[in-house]
Design a protein that fits this description.
Number of strands: 6
Largest sheet: 6 strands, antiparallel
Strand content: 35-45%
Structural class: alpha+beta
Order of helices and strands: EEEHEEEH
Radius of gyration: 12 Å
Number of helices: 2
Number of domains: 1
Length: 94
């Protein structure tokens, strides 16, 4: 996945971290996210981290506040649907 315009992605790391945010470049050893949010927990109804990327966080999920960040030891980068982006943007910590 080469350098292109900014897009919404879900990134997983070797350390089992799951992050939502906006990336301009997903190539290389470091992925920089603008307004990155750590997904701390999601319910089983979410159907895994790919469910987060396709549907966005469901009731019972825990998503941290946004901050710019750099992620290392990335294991997956998943495109996030427009529906999921809307849910992430509106989702409060609960």
């Amino acid at each position: 996945m080469a350098k292109s315009k900014e897009r919404a992605v879900l990134v997983t790391t070797e350390f089992r971290g799951v992050f939502f945010g906006y990336a301009s470049d997903t190539s290389g050893d470091v992925v920089k996210l603008r307004a990155g949010r750590n997904v701390v927990y999601w319910p089983t109804e979410q159907r895994g981290f790919v469910g987060l990327a396709s549907r966005g966080p469901l009731k019972g999920a825990r998503v941290g506040p946004a901050a710019d960040m750099e992620l290392r030891k990335v294991t997956a980068i998943v495109e996030v649907t427009d529906e999921a982006v809307k849910r992430f943007e509106e989702f409060p910590w609960s």
